[in-house]
């Protein structure tokens, strides 16, 4: 019998508690706290909120929900509780137990948590994650590039590329260190677009996007994030943003220029909507020039028939990968790169790396 959604969520929480992303001790202790409550008392208020959210969001995947659960708590900690000491003191499940109980005793905070879980989605806001798409775009074209970022979040990718912000250095395990070399070259940009359901530039949305950006132990990087935002701004003449659901973009069909883009990027988005990935690909195809390519970077694996599956570990076996899809690949996904983590600081060649280089030659 197939596991029900609650059991899938519990299994994912257990996996995150045993092997947390980034080996983050605060994430580990948070998920262990949730597990302890599940084992001890399923009438617990937090468990009730989890069950309620799964009921009102029947399409949310278990991986997306478990990620969203922590991001929602982190959002409250940093924006409503204004906890300047966060995450210090939350290294143990017992500390989280006390913290969550205090949070839920406050009617206003509990309401915010419920609303966040019901209405928001996690989103990619890490500029470094665009070095994979950058490598592909800069390798395949010598002319000025036009690209669209679907599910762009805060728009860091298009904005950073438009301002030629350099990526962090990486450990490159490809022959000749081709990825690192290509990342250092400029990408001539004609125009970039970003499409996301989040209202671009809205202060509350920006606060949410920041909460999705870092593990608790990475909060020291917040000044770097703020400096990056100051450097690129949230608006400039080379990047145009549209507010729309990329799985059903009716609102912008007549506004967005069709068949104008060389590339469409989709970073850390499809894992949340695996049942709607065909909708996204169809939409992207309508925005691309005849030989344009879709670049997908996500926690995914390629199947033998060239499709993507997302039921994979986020922490083992080069979990984060970069794929291309389009006419040149026979509308099958090619795995170009694989990364040691979603932080994109170490890269190795994917199964189709050589085929991709041949395509570029």
Automatic annotation (TrEMBL):
Domain of life: Bacteria
Protein name: Methyltransferase domain-containing protein
Organism: Candidatus Gottesmanbacteria bacterium RIFCSPHIGHO2_01_FULL_42_12
């Amino acid at each position: 019998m197939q596991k029900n959604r609650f059991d899938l969520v519990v299994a994912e929480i257990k996996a995150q508690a045993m092997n947390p992303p980034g080996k983050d001790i605060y994430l580990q202790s948070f998920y262990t706290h949730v597990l302890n409550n599940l084992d001890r008392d399923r009438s617990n208020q937090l468990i009730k909120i989890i069950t309620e959210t799964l009921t009102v969001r029947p399409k949310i995947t278990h991986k997306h929900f478990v990620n969203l659960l922590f991001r929602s708590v982190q959002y409250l900690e940093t924006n409503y509780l204004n906890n300047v000491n966060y995450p210090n003191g939350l290294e143990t499940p017992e500390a989280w137990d006390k913290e969550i109980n205090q949070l839920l005793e406050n009617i206003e905070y509990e309401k915010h948590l419920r609303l966040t879980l019901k209405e928001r989605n996690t989103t990619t806001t890490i500029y470094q994650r665009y070095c994979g798409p950058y490598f592909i775009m800069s390798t395949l074209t010598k002319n000025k590039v036009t690209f669209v970022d679907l599910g762009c979040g805060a728009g860091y990718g298009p904005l950073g590329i438009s301002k030629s912000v350099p990526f962090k250095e990486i450990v490159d395990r490809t022959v000749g260190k081709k990825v690192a070399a290509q990342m250092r070259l400029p990408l001539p940009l004609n125009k970039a677009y970003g499409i996301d359901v989040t209202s671009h530039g809205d202060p509350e949305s920006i606060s949410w996007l920041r909460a999705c950006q870092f593990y608790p132990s990475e909060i020291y990087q917040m000044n770097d994030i703020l400096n990056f935002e100051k450097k690129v701004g949230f608006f400039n003449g080379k990047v145009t943003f549209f507010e729309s659901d990329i799985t059903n973009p009716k609102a912008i069909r007549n506004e967005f220029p069709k068949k104008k883009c060389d590339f469409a990027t989709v970073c850390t988005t499809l894992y949340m909507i695996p049942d709607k990935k065909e909708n996204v690909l169809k939409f992207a195809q309508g925005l691309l020039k005849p030989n344009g390519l879709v670049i997908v970077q996500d926690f995914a694996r390629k199947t033998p028939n060239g499709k993507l599956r997302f039921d994979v570990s986020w922490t083992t076996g080069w979990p984060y990968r970069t794929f291309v899809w389009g006419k040149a690949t026979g509308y099958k996904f090619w795995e170009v790169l694989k990364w040691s983590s979603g932080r994109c600081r170490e890269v190795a060649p994917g199964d189709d790396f050589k085929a991709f280089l041949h395509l570029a030659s």
